[in-house]
Amino acid sequence: MTWVEGRRVAPASPLLADRSVAVVHEWFSATGGSENVFLAIADLLPHATRYVLWAERDVPAGELGLRESWLARTALRRSKALALPVMPLAWRTLADASYDVVVSSSHAFAHTVRLGPPERTRHLSYVHSPARYVWSPTVDGRGSNPLLGVPRQLLRAADLRLSRHVHAYAANSVEVRDRIRRYWKRDAVVIHPPVEVGYYAAPAGPEQPRDHLLGVGRWIPYKNFDLMIEIAEAAGLPLVIAGSGPEETRLRRAAARVGVPVTFEVRPSRERLRELYQGARALLFPAHEDFGIIPVEAQAAGTPVIGLRSGGLLETVVDGETGFLVPTTRAADHAAAVRRVGELSAGRIREHARSFARERFAARMSEWIDDECR
Fold it and tell me: What is the reported pTM?
């Protein structure tokens, strides 16, 4: 099954039905944009075997048909950082099976998987990003520790050496395509990830007053939730922070120091998230992101985005029409943009979001797979 505008429908004609196919992904969390992309790819290839390094404890791996690697039987599954150096080995020893076609969904080392000789097995890789803590430590601070310099160089060399067999790459954004060219010296087509725009556009109930600002995502440093709190204070508006993560305690302390109400919604349901989008005056997104599904979900709800003028937002937000892109991380500059959201049309914002709907992804992905496997 696949998704079209928020509802599941059967694919018209399964791709590569006459060939053996494997689809692979890194670790599998219960909620995550990359996991949703992997499942959307797997839906296009319903007969494919599905491999992951491991699935988190709350993931129904059996129901999803996920086959886990031997890493799932080790303590390393509890620490991605400790497992990282072992991942290339895990991918190379994933299974004895050989397939005609392999499609990987990669944001670390899944593109290094080898499930058959390259002269027989066609390997296509959809890339969310070259591993940011390995290749882009300035973007993702998790890899910026100076003590990681030597391990990072070793992992870069392994990443390049073990991925030579990949026949074709697709990137989730122009930003990621440019990284693939810079780091791997390979070209890639751009296929934006699927977003459930139909679901987030559907009314969640009575029209809401849009009286608060909203921040959504994992509470980790590079997402800049502390800056969102400063922006809300500068704009004089309440803020709702939705998500979860290791920064919760620090963010709650920061929220207690400002003069506007800051509410925390921990792990909101999909239904509650839709309500939050539809009740927000604007989504704050002052982070450099590879693509950013959250800003598209917000726009599907007719909510403008105030974000950083960099990364994926350059592709998902039309500056001055569906939001405002700010070139600095100064709270005052973002607050000034918040004051201008009344100039924007909710109808135009929703219309723009439809260009990222799931059927667009399914059609583009199907075309790419079909072209590369002829």
Answer: 0.88
